[in-house]
């Protein structure tokens, strides 16, 4: 059972000089998203996600994390702000609806109420719920991506927590310590290239990588921290082209593209990646991601 909606807080700008968002979303789904599979798997194992789980994924991307939860038997609902990623999530999670002639299942009044509650998280984004959401409250909420891009993540978490059972786990994840993340060396390039841009600074992916940053957000959102963990998530690509496309698909280089141009960003990114190139031409950067489990009141 799956559903996908839209969410506010869009990544990047879509004005002049913006990337081809459709191609970038495809690169995210086909190249970059799988880099976080160890994180998704570790969290689901720790929480014993299975047939009794009703998962709400905030910032679900193109749906890989939810697909993994669904494979474990969970009912899943995804919320995503980027239309191109949202479309890919629909293809993955709701193949019958994405196929030509596919039909949308009927929604009972109770289910419509549940979906309206999720849609209320994004009042300014018109969206139509797809599929069927669980009638019972959610009992797992995940935020595997996006926290560093949100100005007030506490508001989103507080609203989402009201849709969950008491004591349900809410998972917040992000980059680990910069000294444990080799990709940080490459991502600093994005900030340097974006310096000429007025009013649009590059997102700092390590903004919440301090020892207690995720716990502090959870507490401010009215949640109770209840454990944490670290997971090795190496970024490994078969060749330089895949590495450049994958990293650009994250949106972390949007400001750099606006400040310069896509060709310049790709050129300098390629140069920065050369020190991570192995003898077979592949690229590998070892990283550590951190997650915190908090509980709803």
Note the topology:
Blueprint: E1 2-6, H1 21-32, H2 37-47, E2 54-58, H3 64-71, E3 75-80, H4 83-93, H5 95-98, H6 109-119, E4 140-143, H7 153-161, E5 169-175, H8 183-194, H9 213-220, E6 224-232, E7 235-237, H10 240-248, H11 254-259, H12 262-273, E8 283-285, E9 288-295
Task: Please describe what this structure looks like.
The chain has a single domain (2-22, 31-178, 206-235, 287-295), classed as 3-Layer(aba) Sandwich (Rossmann fold). The protein has helices at residues 21-32, 37-47, 64-71, 83-93, 95-98, 109-119, 153-161, 183-194, 213-220, 240-248, 254-259, 262-273, and strands at 2-6, 54-58, 75-80, 140-143, 169-175, 224-232, 235-237, 283-285, 288-295. The chain has 297 residues and is α/β, with parallel strands linked by helices. A seven-stranded mixed beta sheet has the order 1-3-2-4-5-9-6, with helices on both faces.
Quick structural overview:
The protein has 297 residues and is an alpha/beta fold. It is built from twelve helices and nine strands. The protein has one domain: Rossmann fold, CATH 3.40.50.
